[in-house]
Amino acid sequence: MRRYVFALAPLAAAALWGGMYVVSKWSFGSIPPLTLGFLRVTVGAAVLLAVLGLGDGRATVDRDDWPTFVALGAWVTLTNATQFVGTELTTASEASLLTVLTPVATVFLGAVVLGERVTPAKTAGIAIALAGTVAVVAGQYDLAAVGAGSLLGVVLLLAASVTWAAYTVQGVRVVRRYSALTAATYATVASVPMLGALSAFELAGTPGGIASLPTDTTSVLAVLYLGVAATAAAWYLWYKGLEYVPAGTISVFFFAQPVVGAALGAALLGETLGPGFAVGGALMALGIWVVSRERAETEEESAAA
Questions:
Q1: I want to staple 291 with a disulfide (CB 3.0 to 4.6 A). Which of 54, 79, 127, 252 is the partner?
Q2: How far apart are CA 178 and CA 141, in angstroms?
Q3: Which residue numbers in the chain have pLDDT < 50?
């Protein structure tokens, strides 16, 4: 069964991130982006620490590995800051298209930093999944609006793709040395004071400061979803895939995020799915299958040898 965990875990993480689209539609206009990121990781860190405390004692790490966790926290901080601010500055179509560049960046960094093989099957699978995701986005948004957003926002979203790829790749060693839960927990905890400092700076320039933050039920539930589901659960599940397969392999599951977001938008918000949804979703699934199949065949060949 472990052979299939790598598929179910990162796929579930992508589904939880897809749910962020619906949550953002409900509430996010009133919380500044850096402060939203801080609230997200604070809730996520608290949940992960609580779960880790109930675990099997693998939370103790060597002193030499603490700099790695701090570095992972820095990547988390940069990803949240660039993604949330970039999304605020760009159009919906730009945000959806640019964030799916994360798998491409992950494959590249995996090859350069970790020496992972970029096989023809992996390349083809990612290309197919990317084409499917673009088809879904094209059916959901007006691609003519691409370029209408801020250039700074585009640059920030591109940076977010690279920083999350770096978080994925640099996390491989500590994930496999300790566990996905330990790595995700300490990386998230390390990001809390970093995003806290950015949030304090942001709120200092916001009229009303901290008193301007909403306390209505919808906003609180939205932050809880971000912290518990889209951070604690999703980041753990993403790293769980790294326990079994290369970073470049799990990256292909990231393409499921906008597909899930579009489906939930139709189901919960009454939005209309574009004509390319079915075709795009099928292509995305095919691309993921191609990469997953390559991994399965590689394991079978290794076992036979």
A1: 252
A2: 42
A3: 57, 296-305
pLDDT digits 0-9 by tens, 9-60:
888 898 898 887 677 666 667 888 899 899 999 999 999 999 988 765 456 7
Q: How many C-beta neighbours within 10 Å does residue 144 have?
A: 9
Interval 79-92: pLDDT, tens: 999 988 887 787 66
CA angle 275, 278, 281 (to 5 degrees): 125
0.85 exceeded by the pTM? yes
CA distance 212 to 37: 16
Q: Which sign, positive or negative, has the C-alpha torsion 154, 83, 276, 241?
A: positive
CA atoms within 13 A on the CB side of 115: 0
- Count helices and strands (H / E) in the chain: 14, 0
Please say whether the dihedral angle defined by the alpha carbons of residues 144, 252, 61 and 163, taken in this order, is positive or negative.
negative
